[in-house]
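Regression test case RT-17, inverse folding.

Input:
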């Protein structure tokens, strides 16, 4: 079998050649031009240069990989036309300039205005794009605010068709003398999971490449991007000076008109960890501006009014505005709002003295100047309540086993105050938050996409395995690393979270994982604890601690595929740590995923948890 990545690359090349043969019939006048572009692409792609160690040159290398990927995408997936040829030619010229700079070891100089940039994401070895804007007055000697803008949903979103900043945002940036960045975030991920990680990566890239004031970062977005602002802001309130939500929503249950109690505990946890309505206490420490049009036909204004009802009582940092007669696309009106402009000018990140914080996942462990390094349970939120009174800092927790306290991050007034513990948890003041570390020994399948991973064909038919690969491609807009099981090396096992697709009868690796797992598969049955299911017509997804390189994880998928009727951008949303599922769709699932017969997580001892 061809290695899967080579297989897809062959499809790309065949697609380009097929297109050119079609052109050879004389149907399109740009035949010769496209032939030149295809040949020039082949020539550029053949010139292999290792990623430089120098950071500035590495940024150019990352962008070169993106430009080549875009040319390949245009030639493969877009209908031949003059517009397509012009776009491919433009990307090819940019790639040539970048290659020349790399060969001369002279990094390209950043210019003010709008530009596309990229970074290399090691999770699947792919170049990831972002659009940035630098004001004309940009001078690296000065510090600038950063407006992070999260884009809306589009079924046509891809690495080529996404590169326009919204109207009015650069004018807003000029008025407040700020930089702007728009992450791609793997297209339509709702800015959760891998999409959220991309946003954080892009912010870090902007801080490294440009002179950004870390205390003046505004997270903004519209529509799906507005929902992303709610999510990311509630997960990382310590990172931002303020949140700006336009035409967004923040409550899953309200959105789909569903009762939380109708879901099993594991699914409640998966939903709660991603939506702002479950993190209200985290948001009460952040300045937040919400705008919504009264005549919005895509996201009803009741969504914004609902979040207003949840957050506004007694909250002086929260302001909600309705745009009378406004439809979904009200961003231009919002960006010229005089009060908003002054709000951005004055916004500064602040570390609170007293606060409450809640988290449903280990990834979201930092509560301003406290860091949760060990949780007590699985599928249970961890809560922190801090109150400053009479020269003392009182810390009360539930669901927390260990906290790190970083006095250097505390507000200066209370840094020397006595700490009073209220609860049975360990408090560590010997480490700072940067070096505290957090264990990731449980969680859903999708968490394994947040670290370098590899898809492994563990005995499946090539066509079935490639469908799993294509599922990921449709979701993340990039190919994963791929290998056959027989080609895996010991270094692969140590370096990557492995996704094993096959059956225990065809895969020694799957058989080894199941040997120590509470999930057992026999010739006729799937057994989880004391529960048994007929194997025929069922599927298994299982995330478990790697037997070869802990704390790396391994994901096993056996039986029927998952998510054939599920929308591409929600395919992995509702996969817990383990799931036994049937081929029918769950009637209570708004995204059409499979019906889970039994699901849950493993605790820190790798035992079943409901």
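Golden output:
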């Amino acid at each position: 079998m061809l290695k899967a990545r080579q297989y897809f690359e062959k499809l790309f090349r065949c697609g380009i050649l097929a297109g050119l043969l079609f052109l050879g019939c004389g149907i399109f006048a740009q035949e010769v031009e496209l032939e030149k572009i295809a040949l020039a692409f082949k020539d550029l792609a053949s010139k292999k240069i290792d990623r430089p160690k120098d950071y500035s040159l590495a940024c150019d290398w990352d962008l070169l990989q993106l430009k080549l990927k875009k040319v390949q995408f245009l030639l493969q997936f877009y209908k031949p036309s003059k517009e397509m040829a012009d776009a491919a030619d433009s990307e090819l010229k940019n790639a040539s300039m970048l290659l020349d700079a790399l060969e001369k070891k002279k990094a390209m100089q950043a210019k003010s205005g709008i530009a596309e940039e990229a970074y290399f994401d090691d999770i699947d070895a792919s170049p990831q794009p972002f659009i940035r804007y630098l004001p004309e007055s940009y001078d690296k000697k000065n510090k600038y605010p950063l407006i992070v803008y999260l884009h809306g949903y589009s079924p046509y979103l891809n690495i080529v068709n996404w590169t326009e900043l919204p109207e009015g945002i650069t004018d807003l940036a000029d008025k407040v003398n700020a930089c702007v960045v728009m992450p791609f975030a793997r297209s339509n991920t709702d800015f959760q999971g891998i999409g959220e990680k991309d946003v954080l990566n892009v912010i870090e890239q902007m801080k490294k490449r440009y002179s950004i004031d870390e205390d003046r970062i505004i997270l903004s977005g519209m529509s799906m991007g507005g929902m992303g602002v709610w999510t990311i802001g509630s997960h990382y309130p310590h990172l931002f000076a303020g949140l700006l939500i336009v035409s967004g929503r923040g409550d899953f249950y309200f959105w789909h008109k569903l009762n939380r109690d109708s879901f099993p505990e594991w699914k409640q946890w998966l939903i709660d960890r991603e939506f702002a309505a479950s993190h209200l206490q985290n948001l009460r420490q952040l300045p937040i501006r919400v705008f919504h049009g009264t005549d919005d036909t895509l996201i009803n204004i009741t969504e914004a009014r609902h979040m207003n009802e949840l957050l506004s009582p007694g909250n002086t940092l929260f302001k909600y505005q309705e745009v009378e007669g406004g439809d979904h696309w009200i961003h231009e009106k919002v960006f010229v709002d005089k009060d908003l402009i002054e709000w951005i000018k004055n916004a500064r990140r602040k570390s609170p003295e007293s606060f409450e914080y809640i988290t449903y996942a280990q990834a979201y462990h930092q509560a301003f100047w406290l860091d949760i390094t060990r949780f007590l349970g699985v599928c249970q939120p961890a809560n922190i309540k801090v109150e400053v009174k009479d020269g003392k800092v009182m810390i009360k927790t539930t669901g927390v086993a260990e906290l790190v306290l970083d006095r250097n991050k505390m507000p200066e007034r209370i840094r020397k105050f006595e700490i009073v513990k209220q609860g049975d948890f360990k408090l560590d003041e010997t480490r700072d938050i940067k070096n505290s570390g957090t264990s990731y020994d449980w969680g859903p399948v999708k968490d394994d996409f947040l670290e370098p991973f590899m898809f492994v064909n563990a005995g499946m038919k090539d066509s079935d395995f490639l469908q799993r690969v294509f599922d990921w491609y449709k979701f993340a807009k990039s190919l994963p690393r791929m290998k056959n099981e027989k080609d895996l090396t010991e270094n692969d096992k140590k370096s990557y979270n492995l996704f094993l697709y096959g059956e225990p009868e065809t895969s020694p690796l799957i058989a080894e994982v199941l040997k120590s797992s509470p999930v057992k598969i026999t010739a006729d049955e799937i057994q989880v604890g004391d529960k048994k299911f007929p194997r025929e017509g069922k599927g298994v997804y299982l995330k478990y601690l790697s037997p070869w390189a802990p704390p790396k994880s391994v994901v096993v998928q056996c039986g029927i595929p998952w998510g054939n009727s599920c929308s591409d951008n929600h395919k992995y949303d509702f996969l817990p740590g383990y799931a036994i599922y049937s081929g029918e769709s769950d009637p209570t699932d708004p995204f059409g995923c499979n019906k889970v017969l039994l699901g849950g997580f493993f605790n820190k001892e790798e035992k079943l948890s409901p």
